[in-house]
Amino acid sequence: MNYTLQDIADKIGASVHGDSQCKVSKLATLVDAGTGEIAFLSNSKYKSQLTDTKASAVIINPDCLEDCPTNALVMNNPYIGYAMVAQLLNTTPKPADAIHHSAVIDSSASIGVNVSIGANAVIESGVRLADNVCIGAGCFIGKNAIIGENTVLWANVSVYHQVEIGKNCLVQSNTVIGSDGFGYANDKGRWIKIPQLGTVIIGNDVEIGASTTIDRGALGNTIINDGVILDNQLQIAHNVEIGSGTAMAACSVIAGSTKIGKNCTIAGLVGVNGHIEIADNCIFTGMAMVTKSITEPGVYSSGMPCAPNKEWHKSNARIRKLDTVNVKIKALEQALKELKLQASN
Predict the structure, then answer these.
(1) 204 and 224 inside one domain
(2) What is the mean pLDDT of the chain?
(3) CA 279 to CA 296: how far, in whole Å?
(4) In terms of domains, do 230 and 322 share one?
(5) Are 140 and 186 found together in one domain?
(6) What burial letters (b/e) apply to 7-39, b meaning 16+ CB within 10 Å?
(7) Nearest Cα residue to 213 out of 259, 174, 167, 165
(8) Is residue 97 part of a domain?
(9) How far apart are CA 41 and CA 153, in angstroms?
(10) Domain membership of residue 232 as a residue range
(11) Residues 247, 112: one domain?
């Protein structure tokens, strides 16, 4: 794929400085780019790499234009420009082409126009696949599941019965949607399984990373609203609702029946307790532990940053002495109070 800089500028909302007819066909870093390749600069700490780049063009903001030795696409947010150019020059193949002869498709399934189904995929009874859906090799689509237009599932995704996935979604390999939530009742030490009778409803324009698990609701539904981005290896428990535009990074977990607001950002390794509510526009930094409802937007943290081992041991030893120190402080406060009382008399 070859695009002139003017073609790209028109598509991403940038202005061209230099040869507007220069053609590029590939993205690369400032250091590695050469002829026919386009790079970008969005982080000022890499500005020193700009003057020596061999790229045919660079996406930059106006402040960097005078330091650019080559053609430039100028816009206020070069990182957005990079994302849009990456979409233009994307060479990722489809997970499947046409319908493979080894796919097992129930006769009652509804298959739309231009649907692709990979080798050894299983499509059970009552499934509805809308136009342009792409199902990768080895996927399992359970009974009466619905998948909307232009949605893509990579290899070995499991979609359980009655799950609904909207339009323009992307699900990476080995993700499981609609598995049973962690529902059990304890009868004098014996665990009795509670069948999970709800399902999972996923909106439009949702992206889900590899090996993520989204449990079905126990009675109601687990709901992932429009525009949510979920990274790899997440656990979304039963009856969770995630508001539109929220993003979650890898290895974070949300316990059951919690409601996450809109446009939240949840960093990696965050744990969110069950049966709580999180307001819109909250940010949780890495390893935060959310134990109660958050009612105000803002940035929240609780993870302990790493330290040299000897320093950590010293700090931990001090923490273990906090109760003793607290008792001594209270005794000193009481003694001071008594001294002040004596002095006043």
Answers:
(1) yes
(2) 96
(3) 6
(4) no
(5) yes
(6) bbbeebebebbeeeebbbeebbebeebeeebbb
(7) 174
(8) no
(9) 32
(10) 104-300
(11) yes
pLDDT tens column, 65-97:
999 999 999 999 999 999 999 999 999 999 999
State whether residue 342 is helix, strand or coil.
helix
Whole-number Å distance between alpha carbons of 14 and 287: 38
pLDDT at 345 over 80: no
Q: Which of 17, 238, 275, 313 does the annotation list as catalytic?
A: 238
Distance CA 172, CA 99 (A): 19
Q: Quick one: 296 and 316 in the same domain? A: no
Per-residue pLDDT reduced to its tens digit, 220-232: 999 999 999 999 9
Pairwise CA distance, residues 41 & 8, whole Å: 16
Angle of helix 309-320 relative to helix 322-344, nearest 10 degrees, comes to 50
Asked if 283 and 143 sit in the same domain, the reply is: yes
- Residue 238 is a catalytic residue: yes
The angle subtended at Cα 148 by Cα 143 and Cα 152, nearest 5°, is 95
Residues 6+ apart with CB under 8 A from 138: 118, 119, 120, 121, 155, 156
Q: Are 144 and 268 in a shared domain?
A: yes
User: Same structural domain for residues 338 and 285?
Assistant: no
- What is the tens place of the pLDDT at every residue in 101-110? 999 999 999 9
Interval 285-305 mean pLDDT:
95
Structural domains in the chain (count)? 3
CATH label of the domain that carries residue 22: 3.40.1390.10
271: domain CATH number is 2.160.10.10
Does 128 map to a domain? yes
DSSP string covering 55-117, please?
A: -SEEEE-GGGGGG--SEEEE-S-HHHHHHHHHHHT--PPPS--SB-TT-EE-TT-EE-TT-EE
CA pair distance 129, 109, nearest whole angstrom: 8
